[in-house]
Amino acid sequence: MAQEKRVSHPIMRQYRIHALVLGAIIVASLFVDCGPSRSAKQADAKATTQAEDTGAKRYPLTGRVVSIDKANQSISVDGDAIPGFMAAMTMPYQVKDAGILNNAAPGDQIKADIVMGSDGAYLENVVIAPKSSAPKPTK
């Protein structure tokens, strides 16, 4: 049996090339359309910003309350050194929970977390150490 020689017409060849190019364009557009929408991208960016705030660095602070500034919602603390972060120093800190300003008094010992967030440093989880009664003198 003799093999038939296949003759390709130039117009048919051009049609196949156009069909392949068109198919590639369609497939590429499907990948682009499958991506997140603009609003989804904006929501992701907002969630990332919130995650960064939630992922803020925290450092344990112990110290003595020096003063309280209710108008500025801050408390000045004579803090102990925090190795790898800062030396012992007295400085004011913003507090998120304004209730602590009503409960703390100069001279109180406190423990708290310094939060270094995107909006600066502030204190969180402030705990006032119970006041100890003066020890009775021994005879």
Structure overview:
By secondary structure, the protein is α+β, with helices and mostly antiparallel strands. The chain has a domain at 57-128: OB fold (Dihydrolipoamide Acetyltransferase, E2P) (Beta Barrel), CATH 2.40.50.320. Helices cover 33% and strands 32% of the residues. The chain has helices at 10-33, 38-54, 99-103; strands at 57-69, 74-79, 89-95, 109-117, 120-128. Strands 1-2-3-5-4 form a five-stranded mixed barrel. β1 (57-69) and β2 (74-79) form a beta hairpin. The longest helix has 24 residues, at 10-33.
Précis, in short:
The chain is α+β, with helices and mostly antiparallel strands and 139 residues long. It is built from three helices and five strands, in the order ααβββαββ.
CATH architecture of the domain at 57-128: Beta Barrel
Low-confidence stretches: 43-52
Strand content: 25-35%
Largest sheet: 5 strands, mixed, barrel
Distance between the termini: 127 Å
Mean pLDDT: 77
Oligomer: single chain
State the helicity in percent bands: 25-40%
CATH superfamily of the domain at 57-128: Copper binding periplasmic protein CusF
The CATH class assignment of the domain at 57-128 is: Mainly Beta
Structural class: alpha+beta
* Approximate shape: rod-shaped
Tally of extended strands?
5
Q: What is the fold-level CATH name, i.e. the topology of the domain at 57-128? A: OB fold (Dihydrolipoamide Acetyltransferase, E2P)
Strand order within the widest sheet? 1-2-3-5-4
Please tally the helical runs, counting DSSP H or I stretches of 4 or more residues. Answer: 3
User: What is the element string, with H for helices and E for strands?
Assistant: HHEEEHEE
